[in-house]
Design a protein that fits this description.
The chain is an alpha/beta fold and 278 residues long. The strands form two sheets. A nine-stranded mixed beta sheet has the order 1-2-3-7-8-9-10-11-12. Strands 4-6-5 form a three-stranded antiparallel beta sheet, with no helix packed on it. It is 35% helix and 19% strand. The N terminus is likely disordered.
Length: 278
């Protein structure tokens, strides 16, 4: 009886630390599961690449995934997940084009913009300007547009229609209101693990180059504005440039000298392209 009693006592003493360890491990596991996921911080685009990268901008016609370009700028609604998967399998980097300061009647989310934020027509690609001062109204819609990009495996976003202050938008927008909106866009993109890019808006490049990872420009040669994009290249950030007229033999000398990735396109932005040689 004594030996049995000693065996019970010793067994309990030995079991106690084991039980305590199990309880502590279980608690730790529960604690781990309850921690919120950490946000993904995007790598600044294009991830340390210093040379100009051949690129493609296609918004119309059947998407040609075989184009010899490192970077593709595409419409996230029109482009399918199967197409982005195919491009990623080919090692391409993907940018989605998002209109931040305008909408069109054809946009699937057009009804989400209430009348008070709708301004005049005349925005890029047939759009209607939005009142960018009303961030609380616009932010949920823009966030969903960016989530669509992430869902289709885009890595970066190029924001267009971000210079309403310089146009007859229908609102009394000024330089500072536009600047504040554009910086909020960059912050929103980063919070959703997308690298932000600035389309055109050369008037604010000097102020916004620190906030954006790259620039997309249309016709800086024709408009004689290429030098205004230098804050990006001088900071080691890419400038993706397109001209719609003229010979590449003429304008490439200028833009390649600036360090831009340049090409000639049709205004329809179909698959055709004539890239500059680097």
């Amino acid at each position: 009886m004594r030996s049995r009693s000693r065996w019970d006592t010793n067994g309990r003493h030995r079991a106690a630390p084991v039980l305590l360890t199990v309880v502590l491990l279980a608690g730790a596991l529960v604690g781990c599961r309850s921690e919120p996921p950490r946000p993904v911080v995007p790598e600044p685009w294009p991830g340390g690449v210093t040379r100009p990268q051949p690129w493609q901008w296609q918004l119309s016609g059947p998407l040609d995934v075989t184009v010899e370009a490192d970077v593709f700028l595409l419409d996230p609604v029109r482009t399918t997940a199967a197409e982005t998967t195919e491009l990623r399998s080919r090692g391409r980097r993907l940018i989605c084009l998002v209109s931040a300061g305008s909408f069109t009647d054809q946009d699937v989310d057009a009804a989400r913009f209430p009348t008070p934020v709708r301004g005049r027509s005349g925005a890029p690609r047939g759009g209607t300007w939005l009142d960018v001062r009303q961030w609380d109204v616009l932010e949920p819609v823009l966030a969903d547009r960016l989530r669509l990009c992430r869902g289709k495996r885009f890595e970066a976003v190029a924001f267009t229609a971000v210079d309403g202050y310089a146009h007859r938008s229908g609102f009394p927008l000024d330089f500072d209101a536009q600047l504040r909106f554009n910086r909020r866009l960059a912050e929103l993109a980063r919070s959703l693990a997308l690298s932000p890019g600035l389309v055109n808006n050369v008037g604010q490049v000097a102020a916004l180059a620190p906030d954006f990872d790259f620039a997309v420009n249309e016709e800086c040669v024709r408009l004689r504005q290429c030098d205004r994009l230098l804050p990006f290249t001088e900071a080691g950030k890419p400038v993706l440039h397109v001209e719609y007229a003229g010979s590449t033999a003429d304008f490439c000398v200028t833009t390649v000298g600036y360090g831009f990735a340049s090409m000639r396109k049709q205004r329809t932005l179909d698959a055709w392209r004539a890239p500059c040689a680097y």
